[in-house]
C-alpha cells in the first residue's frame, strides 16, 4: 500500500522540477494543488498483459515528462486500467522518480467492471449477505449507484491502485440511469452516493469527489439525460452539513468536435443558463476534459485559420486538437489516452509549449 496523497508542497515541487522543459502555464493551481494542463487517461485497449505494459510505460514516460494527473476507472479494461496505474506508481516511487505526494490520482465507480455483468453483480453483491443490494439496483444492465456498491467499488479501486488515498474519485456517468429511473429518484440516489463519498473523504480514502459524465452536463435541461449541476452541488452542501463539501470536480468531453461544454448554455445557475464549464467555475467546481482529441475520431484536416492560431509549430492534427482543448478558458486540465510509444512522444511534445491565452483562444472563433 502506497501511503499519502497529493499535496500543495509536493505538486509545487514537481512543477519546479520540470520548469526547464515545461513553461509555467503548463501547470495550474487547482484546489491548492499544482496540476499539469494535460493528464493521461487509461481508457482504451484490451485486457491483456501487452496492453498493461504499454499503459504502464506511457504513464511512467508521462510523469517523467511533466504530467502529474493520472486518470483511470475500475471498469477500464475490466480493472486492468487501475492495475496498470499501480505498476507505474510502484516503478516511479521505488526508482525515486517522484513521490506519491507529487501525483494526482483519479478513479471512478458506477459501471459494472466485469464482462459477465449480471452474473458477477448477482454473485458479488445480491447473493452476498454482506450487502443489502438487489438486482433492481443494477440499471440498464451496466450501472449501479447503490451506496453500498459505490463504497465497495471505492475499496476495490484502492486495492487495485495500491494507494491509501485517491485524490479525486468520480461517480461515473450517472446519467446512464436517467430516462430509466425518474429524476426525483436519481437525485435521491445521488444524495446517498455523496453521503458515502463525504464519509470516505473524512476517513482519508479520497480527498475530493466529482461526477464524470458523457452527456449529463452538455445536454439541455429538457433532455432526459440532463444533470443539474447546481442542484448536485446543493445536495453535496446539504450532505456535508455545514462543513465545506468535497464535491469539487466534474469531468466531461471537450474537443474540437464537441465544444458544447464551453459554448452551449445548458446549466441553470442563479436564474441564468450557462455553459457547463462556466457554471462549474461559478459553483466552485473544477472542470476536467475527457475525450480531448475525440478519441482520435473525426480528426479531419483542420481549417487553416485554426492551424494558424493554434500554432504553426504543431505538427499533427491530434496535437493541435489537444492544444485546443487544454486552452479552453476555465478548464483545469485535458485528459488524453495514450499507450503506443509514438502517440506518447507526440503528445508529450506539447508539454514544452504553453497553452493559448484567452485572447488567442477567442481568435479561433469556435461557435455553436
UniProtKB/TrEMBL annotation:
Domain of life: Bacteria
InterPro entries: AKR2_Oxidoreductase, NAD(P)_OxRdtase_dom_sf, NADP_OxRdtase_dom
Name of the molecule in the record: Aldo/keto reductase
SUPFAM superfamilies associated with the record: NAD(P)-linked oxidoreductase
Residue stretches making up the NADP-dependent oxidoreductase domain: 38-214
